[in-house]
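Example 9 (inverse folding). The structure is encoded as follows.
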């Protein structure tokens, strides 16, 4: 069973916007060496909306090949076109991804029935296990708990990433799905420790990009029921949770990784490099977490 700290991996790019394959290799090794439990390749933090299909495919394939079964790889295969989501999911299965992460269709604003039919189509297109992803703050559509429960009854839909940050809502879903084997992951670093302590299975994390060891230890403590340790670690990285969202994700986290010497500053329009007014904020958060001197 997949659990623990799962990184929503950035896609490193050169200053001209080309994918930096050497840096991607370094990032994957960084996570393998620092306790990350699984990697999301080409998820929304990885900027797939500005990639060509070939680039999207290549990121998934290269991460799968490099990881080589050491930890699970979750392929980002979401799209606001159901046919595109199906195509991406089929490809992820073909190259050996272990799971796929499928975000709610953005901008379209489908009904709950539309969401059900969308994810049903994705699940039926391949036997790759599907993790639903609900992030209404970015997509302008909310996957209701009732629809999640309905989708959980489909054989190939095995989990959800809940990025609402609403612990009461998350706990309600946990209670409704107790004993079903359906997995629940936080997608909100600020509340992830408490989400896991309430019964969640882990965290799909932006912060883990820069603090993989800390987030791995935090999730392990929370999974074991050690609230004291989980909250102590969370306090140390809390400024990171906050500062990595001073501008739209993944702008701050890519700048933080550049500050750590891991990647160049490349990012694709319409996103831009972190505004200078926030450099000190992010740098101080990295220092407070003990990541840089």
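The amino acid assigned to each position is listed next.
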């Amino acid at each position: 069973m997949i659990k623990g700290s799962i990184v929503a991996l950035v896609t490193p790019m050169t200053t001209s916007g080309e994918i930096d394959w050497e840096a991607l290799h370094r990032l994957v090794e960084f996570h393998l060496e620092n306790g990350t439990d699984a990697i999301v390749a080409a998820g929304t933090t990885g900027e797939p909306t500005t990639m060509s299909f070939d680039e999207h495919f290549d990121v998934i394939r290269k991460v799968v090949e490099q990881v080589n079964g050491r930890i699970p790889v979750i392929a980002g295969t979401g799209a606001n076109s159901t046919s595109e989501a199906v195509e991406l999911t089929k490809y992820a299965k073909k190259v050996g991804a272990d799971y796929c992460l499928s975000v709610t269709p953005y901008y379209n604003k489908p009904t709950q029935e539309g969401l059900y039919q969308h994810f049903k189509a994705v699940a039926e297109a391949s036997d790759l296990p599907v993790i639903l992803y609900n992030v209404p703050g970015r997509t302008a559509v909310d996957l209701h708990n009732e629809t999640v429960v309905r989708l959980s009854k489909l054989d190939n839909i095995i989990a959800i990433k809940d990025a609402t940050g609403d612990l009461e809502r998350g706990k309600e879903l946990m209670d409704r799905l107790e004993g079903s084997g359906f997995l629940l992951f936080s997608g909100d670093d600020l509340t992830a420790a408490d989400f896991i302590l309430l019964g969640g299975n882990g965290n799909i994390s932006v912060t883990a990009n820069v603090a993989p060891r800390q987030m791995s230890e935090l999730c392990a403590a929370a999974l074991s029921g050690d609230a004291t340790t989980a909250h102590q670690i969370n306090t140390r990285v809390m400024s990171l949770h906050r500062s990595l969202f001073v501008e739209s994700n993944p702008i701050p986290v890519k700048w933080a990784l550049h500050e750590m010497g891991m990647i160049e500053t490349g990012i694709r329009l319409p996103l831009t490099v972190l505004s200078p007014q926030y450099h000190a904020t992010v740098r101080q958060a990295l220092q407070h977490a003990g990541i840089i001197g």
